[in-house]
Amino acid sequence: MNAKSETTHGTHEHAHGLQLRSTVKKEGVLELSLVSVATPEPKPEEVIVRIDASPINPSDQGLLFGGADMSTAKASGTADNPAVTASISPAVMKAMAGRVEQSLPVGNEGAGVVVQAGASPAAHALMGRTVAILGGAMYSQYRCIKAVQCLVLPPGTTPAEGASCFVNPLTALGMVETMRSQGHKALVHTAAASNLGQMLNKICIKDNVGLVNIVRKREHVDILKRIGANYVCNSDSPTFMDDLTEALVATGATVAFDAIGGGKLAGQILTAMEIAANRTAKEYSRYGSTTHKQVYIYGGLDRGPTEFNRTFGMAWGMGGWLLTPFLQKIGFEAAQKLRERVAVEIKTTFASTYTKEISLAEALRIEEIAVYGKQATGGKYLINPNKGLR
Ligand SMILES: NC(=O)c1ccc[n+]([C@@H]2O[C@H](COP(=O)([O-])OP(=O)(O)OC[C@H]3O[C@@H](n4cnc5c(N)ncnc54)[C@H](OP(=O)(O)O)[C@@H]3O)[C@@H](O)[C@H]2O)c1
Q1: Structural contact between residues 59 and 105, judged by C-beta atoms closer than 8 angstroms
Q2: What is the pTM of this model?
Q3: Which residue's alpha carbon is at the smallest distance from atom 8 of ligand 1?
Q4: Which among 198, 268, 375 is the best mutation to test ligand 1's pocket, defined by most ligand atoms within 8 Å of the CB?
Q5: H or E stretch including 142?
């Protein structure tokens, strides 16, 4: 299928474009497909962005796969116009009630070139510029969006370099802001060799903030040490709890951001924080240390239950953390400052790496899904919705 040959009306070659869709069918089946959608005529304050790069982040995969068991995925359709189906268990279907039979576009963020602008001066000023945008439906050849939502990338920045300007950079910055605003002096991060984790290390090194990284593989310790991390603890090591406690004593970290969620790690962090707090306490308290210890679960890499024994006194909290409410809380101006920092440091602090660039059709290949679906360290994919179509 080709967007140009699909064009039946409209004067632009971008009058129609392909878009990736995810549908949860009522009979418990996920269906992934590509559809041709008409590009809207931009309103005065809007622009049309040709999306040339959009990352496949874990949060995108939540919407994309709809909780389906992707080991059951089957291909249908043709090479140019593929479709994929996979089964969803009855238990997961209960959580999908809000999206059953809706054909949903996917892709939180992306970058590309403004190819059409509405009549307003703000929109016109963006014509031909390379911009980064956030707001869903980025796995599309063309995306209509308000000019004010476009982050103009510094000259010489490619769409691939600017594709991940929001989700991971703003979350990493948000962690440091949250740490400061809640009176903590250093932080802990899990699944720390992730794309986001590497950014967080660069921020903390640059801004002189104490950071304790937790990874689960020896080679991931090396990745973080190479970029300058001081404290990296391997949860797979027999000395993990001791190593973690020492790092907590050294940094004074009392807040953690946990991307994993399931399993024992969140509780182990609070336990180690309690031991560290008691080690430095001036007097004994029979209710446990009076230092507040906090874990924010901000991802669900392990979907299993969060398990913990309350061996950490009474001054603790465990809760969720999400980027969007954080940005709303700090307000537009503060959030804009963070976005501007990301744009300026997009090739350094906030640089992302991808193992492969794929087209929309390739994103629906079973063998590609098997790779990017693993969410492995250094295994992030980039979708170029216009690959092979222009
Ligand atoms: N709350 C928010 O607002 C927000 C915003 C942005 C991102 N996030 C979350 O941030 C996390 C990182 O995102 P990313 O794009 O940086 O990820 P990424 O680069 O794709 O890396 C994923 C990391 O998770 C690890 N991992 C995967 N499954 C795991 C499991 N079951 N247990 C432990 N570790 C596991 C991988 O390590 P291995 O190689 O060892 O598998 C890898 O280092 C994700 O959980 C994402 O949902 C949340």
Answers
A1: no
A2: 0.93
A3: 299
A4: 375
A5: strand 142-146
